[in-house]
């Protein structure tokens, strides 16, 4: 089941830079992990912004929520979730 | 080069139903054609709405514009275009 | 799997009143049918508006989309879909 | 009398983490208490966000206000309140 | 129980002027009737707009909905409903 | 001359709690004082929010401005002011 | 008493062009009349838009409402009204 | 050449009160100076808000920019600039 | 003097297609004419939309207004005008 | 390939003034450098705001992203990116 997820990161000004750098590194590892599980098939950077466009492939809303809230940067994100399904004119997918 | 394109269709009330049905059928054929050319790798339906989430893979803004304006339903669409590029944490793409 | 679905109806001014009345009656029957299937556990009227707050319980985004687009009033609706999951402080559900 | 209440929590950056954790625990107990009183029949988590969708069943606006402002997290919330009533096509409720 | 209700009228361009004039006259009578019942204690015109600010005093959301939808101009209105309760600094009310 | 005034309070996180409590107490006294002068005939609490709906009865814009800016909580408020006048269907007022 | 009034005209597509031209001419005469009364001291065109920025000088909200609703183009306008008063740093006015 | 300029001041919470008071005093002097030069013919206070409505009369965009950015409060302002020109129905100006 | 002007065209559904085609052709000729006068140095198409991004170089707001309102498509456009001036980091211009 | 890029700077209140001044100076040098490379053909200041209107000429979304994120002020900016292409009525470009 596919979801379009758009995440905008608002870097926290109350954290020390190296603390935030550490969190970002953890974020990268966690993101790679979820992608390897096949749950996060698409992850693109929005040109000119500290935000991404993602597509998640999960079995339930709960699973999607657990994955997103497990991201170290989650507390600093504005997240929008758009459920998607097959388009009648789609060639494949 | 990737673009997130979101298209919302506002069915025209001033057209006869069969005329609009004809345009929709042309739209489907044109969409399949562009997908076969590899220019439109992803096309999903937004759950509960007459709109789609698409990803286009083109060589220039001009090419994207020409493809979008070639769609028979283009005059009845609200279109948003978001340029994207590689995300540093993306596993592949 | 639960979704909050909010539907606002914009009555079409280009349809004859009795034609729209017929569609509304079909809508009521279809809504009752889906509720009997257990897919639409909650349907409330928003006070002072021609819109509703609903909760759907479905197995996939696709199923939700098919149910919503099967509603006779769908072409005259603005629909927002919010995926939900269990709240850690919820007593039951 | 039913109200749709949507609460978005903006975690305070000026509070110490353990202080905020304490408040969150109090919040959970208070939420369970109100639910046991039958005043808060539905509480769901919005997928991907630190916010909830709730339905309150109260006898007056005043009662709803007193319940909401009694929540320990109230000072850190954006709350929207939508009065609801019976929908003519609702099977039960 | 008090509600702030704000109503903006969008005059229908598809109705004949005298037909709309007739509806407006019915609206006035119905509004006076509800006010005489004590359910609509305040009705003010917003300066410079075809809209009003009202306060309704009702026993339930359902009653408010029935009153509002009974207004002949209801189909041509954008309505916002804000539940209110006693303010701790209010002298009376 | 009547004005609808809606005030949303954003509690300042940079003030000590007892300092803000002191200001709130001053606010209450000032609000009662203005109401006794007959300038602030209606003051209601918006259910579920730290904001109010008020009606002021003043002789000029200047008087309204002076009254509002005299409120101790004014620096922490988002204020919207809507001029109103007699509605042709109003029973009294 | 001063009010900033911003008027955006949405030309009606359901009226014959010469009918709308007649209304526009009436509008011009009425506008000149109000200005001669000293009630409409400033009237400017917004560059690039079919809208104006005006300042009205009236004795009450009611007077402003009567003046605005007397404008032949009023039914085709979006109007915003902002009450103003003396600025402490204003040299004159 | 006329511009409608609307300035909303967001008092900085990170500055000491007397420091901000000093800046406000400088602002007043600078505003009076620009008005004396005839560049700032109108300056009104928006009722109930810490913001103003102004009309500037300048020879170029650059001149307007230089004047606005010379205001001591500029760093704490949200500014909107609307170019204006003569209205065909304006009596004078 | 430079202005960023963004024009979105909303094709009129109440005009016959060939009538609108005629207006579009007139629009093209007028646009070329203004560009040859050096008043419209930049005109770009927004990818995926029936709208443009333009830069006008004029001597006054009035001149800009006269140029824009002289465009045959003006009645069917949403126009936004942003005055611009030299940027301190600009290499040339 | 052209992009309209609009950058609004929100000066950070948590940085020391001289630290921010240093970053601004680095920003200027970097901006001049990119302009000399021909990648940033237009850079204008928006009148009355700490923001700019720019046109970038790049070969890909990736290149645009790398250029923008290389700007020292990038962390303090709200950036909007609009892909553009040739307009059918453009004289040159």
Automatic annotation (TrEMBL), chains A, B, C, D, E, F, G, H, I, J:
InterPro entries: Dimeric_a/b-barrel, MLI_dom, Muconolactone_d_Isoase. It catalyses: (S)-muconolactone = (4,5-dihydro-5-oxofuran-2-yl)-acetate. Gene3D superfamilies: Dimeric alpha+beta barrel (3.30.70.1060). Transmembrane segments: none annotated. Pfam families: MIase (PF02426). Keywords: Aromatic hydrocarbons catabolism, Isomerase. Belongs to the muconolactone Delta-isomerase family. Homodecamer. This is Muconolactone Delta-isomerase. It comes from Marinobacter iranensis.
